[in-house]
Batch of 4 targets.
Target 1
Amino acid sequence: MARLVVCNIMSLDGFYADNDGNPLVLEMDAAFDAYNLERLRAAEALLLGADSYRIFMGFWPAQAGNPEASTVNQEFGGIYGRIKVNVISDSPRVTA
């Protein structure tokens, strides 16, 4: 049986997005990136919700070859381009 590690973006007071649903209002600095990259390097697969899947897979794989992206973002992109991704959704069909 595989081990499941959960990483969730949330402020200490329970907020994970602004009123429009944008999670990027939370402060994400170099320490945040380093932690998430460490977790991603150790992962064998990802489990994402449908919205996260659409957002992440529409953005991250392209960063692997983006010369304007940071080294960390390029590595994120490379991993997202090759890792197995499982999607949990209550929708009958999920598309990127």
Note: DSSP finds three helices and two strands in the chain.
Target 2
Amino acid sequence: MNTLTPLVARDPAETPRAWLRQLAEHAVAAVHPDALLPAVLPAPPRGRTRVVGAGKAAAAMAAALERAWQARQPQAPLEGLVVTRHGHGVQGRGVDCRHIEVLEASHPMPDDLSERAARHMLEAVADLGADDLVIALISGGGSALMSLPAPGITPAEKQAINRELLRCGAPIREINAVRRHLSAIKGGRLAAAAHPARVLTWLISDVPGDEASLVASGPTLPDATTPADALTILERHGIAIPAGVRRHLAANAPAPHPGDKAFARDASEVLARARDALEAARIAAEAAGVEVRLLGDDLEGEARELGRAQGRLALAARDGRRAPLLLLSGGETSVTVQGDGRGGRNVEYLLGLFETLRGAEGIHALAIDTDGIDGSEDNAGALFAPEDWARAHARGLDPVDYLSRNDAYTFFAALDDLIVTGPTRTNVNDFRAILVLPRTP
């Protein structure tokens, strides 16, 4: 999934499942670091160039940067370190980093390696001067992967808060606002530590709206929120607040804010976002003669409810249709966990869609997380075809029952409908595609 190749322009009605799979691969390849980094390479500074980074795409971003740097300006030294999720590194796959160290840590829950990576990153920029350049490679997942609690907060307290935020279905904007104010590195604190060096931040966005400061909780970008905002979010969701966390937030020590002189020479650029993956899919699908409707690249809300709503939309669009239609959407939904099942937001979305369609003729669907990991499972997502409705009932699989237990992974695994890609080493969040074919006369 890391090479952009043209989609075979064949009739999707011939092999709709394979067509959807290939379309998803094409979309992911369009937002892989290999397709992005070479075009944005800066000139080397008078001083040193230090690379830091965190996220599920950080290792691939570092490898792409190294290759382009060595090809164009091999005389300029390059060094640094990035941290990515376990299994998302690139060593041993022909794209090793020689000058940038790649660390791995836990996601979505931080571990000791996450804290160690954060400390190393702060140390890596501490000795820089005004002639030096920091290139920060930031992508989704970085919040957990470099997790250093603010003074007075224990790692266990921070993990407990993070766990409850994920379970309650809070939107990512709120989750990251809290994370920034419980951290010693997020919310611009890494850039502040690098001052007076210039910081250039490149981002692969996994957040709806693509606000740069929200990606990985913005370690190199200023924070417009306040500790009081974080406290309000925790209280609104009824999350128990440990004493150390409450004391820290009540002290009202804000993160570096917009306008802070530490950011005066810095710059940032979002290199890839959900919209780019959807656009690549749109172009490829239209080349195959398929009509495309983009439903939005920043959709949020409860995953199953979005699936149900888009299912109703697909049913309405099918009536009287004479040519194939593709409904595309992206963003990041949430799952309010009420059961003890297995699953991520993409399979939960699909199960809500599946329940609504009830095997409607001609409607196929796919949903994946573009990083290759749906939630914390081993699948990227899943797909289904109309005939899966009868298959499910023949096996005694009731979608309502599985939804009640948040067990969509098990449901689609029983149908052999899971999509397992392994880490893609990029991350622009969810990619959802519903293929509506004309009814058979």
Note: The longest strand covers residues 79-85.
Target 3
Amino acid sequence: MITISEARQTNEMIREENLDVRTITMGINILDCADESVEKFCAKIYDRITKKAERLVKTGDEIAMEFGVPVVNKRISVTPVSIAASACACENYVEVAKTLDKAAKEVGVDFIGGFSALVQKGESAADKKLIDSIAEALSSTDIVCSSVNLGASRSGIDMDAVRRMGEVVKETAYLTRESDSLGCAKLVVFCNAVEDNPFMAGAFHGTGERDCTINVGVSGPGVVKRALEEVRGADFETLCETVKKTAFKITRVGQLVAREASQRLGVPFGIIDLSLAPTPTVGDSVAEILQEMGLEYAGAPGTTAALAILNDNVKKGGVMASSYVGGLSGAFIPVSEDHGMIQSVEAGALTLDKLEAMTCVCSVGLDMIAIPGDTPAETISGIIADEMAIGMINNKTTAVRIIPVFGKKAGESVTFGGLLGYAPVMPVSEFSCAAFINRGGRIPAPIHSFKN
């Protein structure tokens, strides 16, 4: 039950501190649409998506209007296409991606995720077909998002797939070069991908999920920053308690919206993802939270410790507010989408190496980072391999969403627009890892994977 006091505090957070529900994401199972004919499969998934999600956008808008809580995005995730389309007798899955795009536009959502494959232990024929389709699929659609899980703590890292994904990122960058390689912003690779993530580009509807679910992602970096301003200079115990209490309030808002959406749509409620997802708007930044903790810039010594404090206490506060916290839940550190991160890069405080260190304790990993367009595919694969290793060894989700901007060099900048923001092109090590990446095979799981 939401109290009057909580309602007043919520109104203040929305009005003055950029609190919003970042997304209501409907997960839809498309496994029973399987068909040998790709045309019939596409017709079935179009029908399934447009029927299941026909009221999603309208319902999200109605809730936003009635409760005064901004609902920024309405999204759909589907069963990984490499699994659902595996029976199709076709050369590639580009037509499937186009069908997803068409269906998503028909119901009016912002993005649709699930053009995905799970290859942490090796590729099936369908997985290979999907991976080979990604670049063309993302260059010929507008709102389709793609993800590939390359590693897991229980199974190791598929280095053949890591090598291939470095090439796919480059191919996608080239095919979308007219829009500053924007296709790469819709492509993410994971270690330990979760099945109920409502955020793009990594959302897909896992095979362990119900037939259809509602997952909600809340966001409130500005709220946390404002709360920490009230305890400026206080000790770490006070800092931690403040973050926990604030995360509790933010999550309660998400819980309210999720329950309401679930009831109105007649779709079971899945999870609340309480990740602090920033925007390019000033005052809505994870980096600014770190600065409020006492850092001159994000990237200064102490940044990883500060981010660890933030991530842990957001989770501690969130799980007190909802019994169904899931997804990624913590703090995102995308460069282009965070005004404070951009400033830190421009000031020279934040480098790619420091961002990698920060991913040991954040929600995901290297996110929305622009790099020179002439970066070799093997170097991109090496960056991916490093992140996969961090996730595998630390038993956490890590990811890479990196954009080699065609025609751009380090020190230049690129504008993506909207929530994707703009980014300085960051330099990448020029030392080669090609011989390492080209070994192929699979990196075995760490010893702590044997827990049965």
Note: The mean pLDDT is 89.
Target 4
Amino acid sequence: MESGKPIGEMLKACRERAGLSQRELSEKLHVDRSVVAKVEAGIVKQPSYALVKEWARITNGQEIVGLDISGGKDGWTKLRALEQVVGQMKSALDVVQFMRRRKERANHVKQM
């Protein structure tokens, strides 16, 4: 689904809908106010996915993250899918590390 609006306009609308000034939002994002202004003005045409996602979370505009606003077909959808895969891989690695520690503890107890 293509939005037809530049990302900066959509993010600005989210900020305004949340009742935040550029300064207030920049403080919550931990970026300089000029970053917010440049994104909204379209000077930064492709802000990072992490910035857009956090902006959307802070302004309660998560619906924009699912839109195709990256320039490619289903760009944000693909990024979100990739993020889920990475999250699943991290969870699997956490389980592997847990099992390894558990095995190491069991071996340590046997040696005592």
Note: Helices lie at 7-17, 22-29, 33-41, 49-58, 75-111.
